[in-house]
Amino acid sequence: MKMRKKFAILGAFVALLLPAAVLAGEVKGTVEVHGIRSAEHIVVYVDAIAGKTFEAPAQHPVINQIRMTFQPHVTAVLKGTTVEFLNSDPVGHNVYWPSVGGNKKLTHNLGTWPKGDKKPFQFNDLGAAPLLCNVHPEMSGYVVVVPTPYFAVTDKEGNFTLKDVPPGHYTLKAWSEDGKPASQDIDVTAGTVTVKLSVSK
Ligand SMILES: [Cu+2]
User: Fold this and answer.
1) pLDDT for 72-82, tens place per residue?
2) What domains does the chain contain, in order, with CATH numbers?
3) Which of 7, 23, 119, 177 lies 20 to 30 A from 92 at CA?
4) Cα 66 to ligand 1 centroid, rounded to whole Å
């Protein structure tokens, strides 16, 4: 009896000492594509979690207009994040988007500015904003606004890693430029969870 009590106290003590970070999981996976151009630049993210809100990061991601392209081509951000648009070319570039998440009422034109200048915009609406330049119609990029900080953009092979995901049951979603949205339920536990997602035309 005495021994058992000792163990119970020790157990409770160890549980208290375990930092939350140790219990966080990692979601590692690959996106397989069917009938679309590339497995690269696909946004994979944990969908909205009921009762949870997240503070936008203080750091502002930069989207560079360089060599007549938007770099990176696809940028994923948590809702509320401010993005800085930088022009690095010796010509004036414009930035506008015709919609966000397919909603044309959210169209916005940031204007046109010269090399070295930068303009911020805070993205408060969920979904993809297709970036365009009205000076150079061949330029295109995307800002994809997601509801949780658990997101990644795939590399050339379609690989992605979501870090520091708290254990739980979630819906994992994938957005791509030219494929249908995909989703899959996942259970995250401490350690690494491996998933395969399929995106098709
Ligand atoms: Cu341009």
Assistant:
1) 999 999 999 99
2) 23-51+149-201 (2.60.40.1120), 55-146 (2.60.40.420)
3) 177
4) 9
